[in-house]
Amino acid sequence: MSSLLEKAVRIATLAHEGQRRKEADIPYVSHPVSVAFKLLSHGFSETVVAAGLVHDVLEDTEYPQAQLQENLGDEVLTIVLAVTNDDALSWEEKKLRYIETVRNGPEGAKAVAIADKIHNAESLLNAYVEVGPQVWKNFNRGKEKKMWFEHEMLAMIKEVWTHPMIAEYELLVEQMDALPDV
Q1: Which has the least CB within 10 A, 39, 90, 113, 154?
Q2: pLDDT tens digits, one per residue of 57-90
Q3: Please, are residues 144 and 71 in contact by the beta-carbon 8 Å criterion?
């Protein structure tokens, strides 16, 4: 493992310590690791994989932006900033801003965003098998708004990027659409 990836694994593990996934009672760090594996399986650079490992650190932890930049570099930070929600905004504004920052971000940001969306969708579908329609209660705005965001994200990414992960994401969006609501 490269020094960059080793640092990213360490940061993700320490920053997300004690956090749990909302769809399943497992350590949160399993999510960024899954995102990183998805990126690795598609041959993305170590920089993009490192960004995948720490993509939620600025949004979901107290880890300092300057320290992330110092430890992992400008390129990783640029990708992470492009996929970080601005929690000062309303939910709808936050999601629209996210779509635009990914649209205008580097290719690595698009890759991390879609790998993230794929893993989140897989987690939701797996949780649905366990708990049924109750899974939608894990989302601030329920199924309707969750799926609005997924469709907006999918439409944007299809306009600006070409990659096999998009077809995988599209299939998962269709599968989520088909799930009954509460």
Answers
A1: 90
A2: 999 999 999 999 999 999 999 999 999 999 999 9
A3: no
Neighbours of 76 (CB within 10 A): 28
As annotated, the active-site residues are 59-60
Domain architecture of the chain: domains with CATH: 3-178 (1.10.3210.10)
The C-alpha angle with vertex 74 and arms to 87 and 6, in degrees rounded to 5, equals: 90
Beta-carbon contacts of 129 under 8 Å, excluding residues fewer than 6 positions away, are none
What per-residue string of b and e applies to 132-160 under the rule 16 or more CB within 10 Å gives b? eeebbeebeeebeebbebbeebbebbeee
CA–CA dist 54, 66 (Å, integer): 14
CB atoms inside a 10 Å sphere around CB 67 = 12
The DSSP letter of residue 88 is T
pTM over 0.85: yes
